Amino acid sequence: MAISHLLLRFFLLLLAFSLDDAPHHHCTEAVATTLPPPPPPPFSFKFDFSNTYTYRLEDLRFEGTAAVHGATVDLTCNVAQCTTGRMSYGRAVPLWDRATNEVASFATDFVFKIVTPDNVARGDGMAFFLSSYPSRVPPNPSGQNFGLIAGDADDAGDGPDRFIAVEFDTYDDTFERPRPAGDHIGIDVSSVADSINTTSLNFSRNGAMRASITFDNVTRMLVATVQFTDQTTASRAAPVQVSATLGDPRALLPSEVAVGFSTANGATFQLDQILSWSFNSTLASPHPVVKGCLWTSISTSSQKERGSRKVCDCWSSHISVLVWSILSWCKWRSSNRDIDKRTGGVRQFKYNELAAATNQFSSENRLIGAGPFGEGYKGFFKEMGRHVAIKKISKESRSEGSSKNRNFYDEVKTISSAKHKNLVELVGWCVKRRWNIFDFMCWCREKAHTIFLVYEFVDNSNLRVHLHEKEAVLPWTTRYKIVKDICAALVYLHHERRPFVLHRNIKPNNILLDKEFNAKLADFGLSRTTDKVRKVRYLDPECRKTGKFKRSSDVYNFGIVLLEIACKKDENSYAKVWSRYLDKSLMEVADDRLRGEFDERQIERVIVLGLWCCQPNIDMRPTMQQAMDFLETDGPLPELAEPETSSSKIGN
């Protein structure tokens, strides 16, 4: 009984240590001398300024007029005078690792308001920035440069004054090159004059807005998106996005940077407010914030000696129980940290968040045609102000076992780091676990859990629906645009990503369309987690023989989809189109629903490209880069090799 009581007390103590919000713990010295510090997790934080339990003032650095007022951080004063305000994270944030030269990928989300008196006068706007640490407001900053640099807006920051910023500009300045029209967002690198910008929402509507900024360390692409958070306003104003490929961050900024918000008012004024802010990086902080006293109690040798004496005084049976409990706890904690590291810092949702967003996964929220490997639901996150598509990976389609679970986390990292306008964005993920004391203590027994993936919601169904189910015929100009969009996505996955990514299941169901019929490729990168049910029509015959997928397999899938886009529904198989190619009568297989309203040269090139991609000999197929070059030029058509008779049934 004594051992059982000791185990119960020790387990409760360990459970208390695992609670991140607990400010202090009273530790036993015996434990302090036994546990080495775990590896630090990827750097992240999340603040909701309406909830004082989510942040501490010492976590933040305020400069100028910036201060917390109620449920918001006010960066400026709403008065008619020149004011400058900054809020930044209170400690250095890792941008790149000096030891390994690894550059961080990062993502930040924040909700903000720009309030103007009587909605007439306007200030200059605000900016999210990365700069040298610690943050400092330059002397005599002006409103037109958002308090980022001293002097005129044409000046550029140098040395410690260099910065990378995303501006939310509310003033029509004449110095910007190119000159934008009205409110806009822009990307600035050490200068606010030469920015990459786009016309944006009317920031001064006094509505709350959500901004999302991501940086990919592989492509060096910085992408910023902004939209109103309330559905009423959001329905009138579509989200806007701006992106830019940056230079090497190691040449732009030091390894540790300040991140935060900066603003300045000129002759006119406005109130710039931050309501919430989160930040996630793939690198660990070199200066971790230690909570509790579990590790800090190791600091003095006298404490170690006292702890050692206490351990020696314990019964051997108690020591065995304690050691096993400690190992169980370490395994549990390291598993959670390993998940954060493997997934690259992309947001992990709680199951109850997904349930609330989907009205408890109601049938009204279920998406039609979610795919053979799981159910899909439409959800809305009020905090984020956006609709999402939530996919539940079914147990029947998922391979079980701990190695498959680890593969899932690796693939989440792959998907989240793939940033391209023609790929569906992964917003986050969730694993629904069922923990009990037996699972905790018997950590050698791992169980598979229910997996959820949270994607951006693409609101115009998929290509299969528009090609085969809707009465309205998809015009050729739209089809040709979709072809090039899919090709661009595959060029990115095959040739611009390092390492490259295979899709393995390209078909019309996985090509989603938005309201402007921009195509986005979905369900890439999930091959090892899911044993997908693939239709024979889209499966490369070479894969059927060898069971191995290559880039040429994706090329084959792409070719079959091209034939389906351009040809009649009952004559779009490879064998039938190939016979027309030999007869030099390709136009006879063009989709007759188009009623001849197409560019003959374009449709011929698409059909020939489809045949080229489906060549039975994989060495004769083009790469995706060659396919894109073929679409974008008007060169001669390739001479295609005639397939062997045994291969004539491919694509049926």
From TrEMBL:
Principal subcellular localization: membrane
Signal sequence, start to end: 1-16
Pfam families cross-referenced by the UniProt entry: Lectin_legB, PK_Tyr_Ser-Thr
GO cellular component: plasma membrane
Keyword Oxidoreductase found: no
Keyword hit for Cell inner membrane: no
Stretches assigned to coiled coil: none
Gene Ontology terms: biological process: defense response; response to other organism
InterPro entries found in the cross-reference section: ConA-like_dom_sf, Kinase-like_dom_sf, L-type_Lectin-RKs, Lectin_legB_Mn/Ca_BS, Legume_lectin_dom, Prot_kinase_dom, Ser-Thr/Tyr_kinase_cat_dom
PROSITE patterns documented for this protein: LECTIN_LEGUME_BETA (PS00307), PROTEIN_KINASE_DOM (PS50011)
Domain Protein kinase: 362-631
TM regions (residue ranges): none
EC number(s) recorded for this UniProt protein: 2.7.11.1
Location in the cell: Cell membrane; Membrane
Membrane topology value: Single-pass type I membrane protein
The entry's keywords: ATP-binding, Cell membrane, Glycoprotein, Kinase, Lectin, Membrane, Nucleotide-binding, Serine/threonine-protein kinase, Signal, Transferase, Transmembrane, Transmembrane helix
GO MF, any single term: ATP binding
Family, as annotated: In the N-terminal section; belongs to the leguminous lectin family.
Protein name (Swiss-Prot/TrEMBL): non-specific serine/threonine protein kinase
